[in-house]
Task: structure prediction
Amino acid sequence: MGAHALGAAAYACQAVFHAEPEKGQLAWTQEIQWQVAHMTPDVRDALRQLPPVGEPGGPLGPGLLSRGLLGESIQRIQSTLGST
Result:
């Protein structure tokens, strides 16, 4: 389920990026911050248990969610979770 949560958050980040082309990177970064800020401590702890996006054999292994803006979004979310 954690992989699904990260996927949904990544799709939201991608949507904001494309919906606000004049802000682009800034809107994307702000959405990532928003997503992490609105996670409960239990959700953060659960998502920290997942292997990094793109790691073979993991729930976020090579595939759609590990490429492009989706993959970058998940990677950024995971790195932010590691520091919160």
Observations:
- Residues 44 and 81 are 7 Å apart (CA to CA).
- The chain has a mean pLDDT of 90.
- DSSP finds four helices and no strands in the chain.
